[in-house]
Design a protein that fits this description.
Distance between the termini: 58 Å
Order of helices and strands: HEEEEEEHHH
Shape: globular
Radius of gyration: 18 Å
Structural class: alpha+beta
Oligomer: single chain
Strand order of the largest sheet: 1-2-3
Helix content: 25-40%
Length: about 140
């Protein structure tokens, strides 16, 4: 029983379904699968959850795998016409949203990504770091 519990600590969640589609962020457009959305027609881009493949999903000992498969990251793109596009996307350690800082700040300045969401995506949570970041993006114009 103890051995199985320890082995769960190193096992990934089961992947249900198949990998298909794509989410790509660009300065003036967002591509979901093969469909382009011009940034001027996007009202909001929100990320409902953001998991990274290989990160622990629980700090408690359980009898289920404890490493994330990275597939439960969810987004919603809302167009100015009211259309909502939702989907899941895969994040790996080398391909994380926090590495898209320049694009995410640009989206925030355009009003597409909220301040709170931006801080969460960039993993900025300490008061001093938030103040420094605020000055940094305001200095950029």
């Amino acid at each position: 029983m103890i051995g199985y519990t320890i082995s769960c600590f190193f096992r990934y969640e089961k992947e249900l379904g198949t990998y298909s589609g794509n989410l790509s962020l660009f300065e003036e457009k967002i591509i979901v699968d093969d469909k382009e959305y011009d940034l001027s027609k996007v009202r909001e881009l929100s990320f409902l959850s953001s998991t990274v493949r290989g990160k622990h999903i629980s700090s408690r000992f359980t009898f289920s795998p404890m490493l994330s498969n990275g597939l439960s990251s969810r987004f919603t793109l809302t167009s100015k016409s009211g259309q909502k596009i939702q989907g899941n996307f895969l994040q790996t350690e080398s391909n994380r949203l926090k590495y898209c800082k320049e694009i995410l700040v640009h989206y925030h300045k355009k009003g597409i990504v909220s301040w709170h969401q931006l801080l969460n995506l960039l993993e900025i949570d300490k008061y001093q770091k938030i103040q420094e970041f605020k000055k940094e993006i305001n200095a950029d114009g």
